[in-house]
Amino acid sequence: MKIIIAPDSFKESLKASDVANVIKAGFSQIYPDAHYTLLPLADGGEGTVEAMVDALDGDIINAIITDPLGDKGNAFYGISKDNQYAIIEMAAASGLERVPIDRRDAKITTSYGTGELIYHALEKGAKKFIIGIGGSATNDGGAGMLQALGIKLLDRNGKQIGYGGQALANLNQIDISQMDPRLQHCDFEVACDVTNPLTGKNGASVIFGPQKGANTADIKLLDNNLKHFAQMIKRDLGIDVEHIPGTGAAGGMGAALLAFLNAKLKPGIEIITELLNFDHLIKDADLVITGEGRLDHQSINGKVPIGIATIAKKYNKPVIAIVGSLGDKVEIVYPYGISAMFSILSKVSTLADALDPKTATYNLYLNARNIAATLKIGTQLK
């Protein structure tokens, strides 16, 4: 029997690789001779680098970058064994987790560090980039990233504008003549699971600004500045990004990647399954097991279990989801290819207890073992 185990992480509890290994351990108690293929995954957010490095037999590279507040710090990205693919999480360099709550200010935070990670990967020889843009602390339209890559965003005096979304008000000219020439020969795919446009009531500033420290006045300022940025891009590059779905992702980073790097904005799980040629892997499988921390009605919006199940459904492969918890209206996932789903929780507990890695590992192992035993009983019944 061939079993593919392809889970996401259990957020704040277990890494995707740990989840996959524990499920295998539980199933192996009942099916010790089965052939297991472990593919720990992510959907473009936290854990994407680690999951893809494992899948590509690559390495995690550390780099010194400029953090969202302009200070120097450490960040990381992944690179494939042949140095062709770079996997970057924007959050690693420009993420909200890098900014203390009492210092969050969407007017001044910069995406410069993300550009530095791209440059670092270029130096390693990377030509294909997968960039996850979830969890950003910025609302600068990707301006900082662009500056790190040699693009000049100039004010009326011909000087580079400063960091942050508020500085976009000073933008008078875009000069791409000194953009790193290697970028013209690179492919960029952006894990983007939101469809928000750059500006307006559903745009980057209004929807995501508050969690980055923007108050009502800030939101109006930032939205106007992103609108101005879009107008400058249209004038100087001939590309209208303002209302394209996804350009509002990560404080407008989606717009910058699309306009300046010709990036393709796609659901993260779609990018990753294509890279791993998951269709080919699943054709010969007898069973697919997936999972994540919580499965509910929102999981249909680009989450790993649904991405996996959708592919498995094409080949009529059964899919079992083993998850931390089952949420509201979770039955909506069945038509997407989930055959059965199970929560690892066996008793009432506090959230802290449920997330405890040792407890979660035990619960996951026991659940996987019991599911395997149930499957075996089913094959023996007449």
Q: Tell me about the largest β-sheet.
A: 6 strands, mixed
Instruction: Briefly note the structural class of the backbone.
Output: alpha/beta
CATH architecture of the largest domain: Alpha-Beta Complex
Percentage of residues in strands: 15-25%
- CATH superfamily membership of the largest domain: Glycerate kinase, domain 2
Shape descriptor reads elongated
What is the typical, i.e. mean, pLDDT?
93
What portion of residues is helical?
Answer: 25-40%
- What is the third-level CATH name, the topology of the largest domain? Glycerate kinase, domain 2
Sum up the structure in keywords.
382 residues; Rossmann fold; Glycerate kinase, domain 2; six-stranded mixed β-sheet; five-stranded parallel β-sheet; 13 helices; 36% helix; elongated
Description:
This protein is an alpha/beta fold and 382 residues long. It has two domains: 142 residues, Rossmann fold (3-Layer(aba) Sandwich), CATH 3.40.50; 219 residues, Glycerate kinase, domain 2, CATH 3.90.1510. 36% of the residues lie in helices and 17% in strands. A six-stranded mixed sheet has the order 3-4-5-6-9-10, with helices on both faces. α1 packs parallel to α13.
Secondary-structure topology with pairs:
Elements: E1 2-5, H1 16-28, E2 35-38, H2 48-56, E3 59-66, E4 72-79, E5 85-89, H3 90-94, H4 112-124, E6 128-132, H5 143-148, E7 152-154, E8 173-175, E9 187-191, H6 204-208, H7 216-237, H8 253-261, E10 264-266, H9 268-275, H10 278-283, E11 287-290, E12 294-295, H11 304-314, E13 319-323, E14 325-326, E15 340-343, H12 351-355, H13 357-380
Parallel strand pairs: 1-2, 1-11, 5-6, 6-9, 9-10, 11-13, 12-14, 13-15
Antiparallel strand pairs: 3-4, 4-5, 7-8
Helix pairs in contact: 1-13
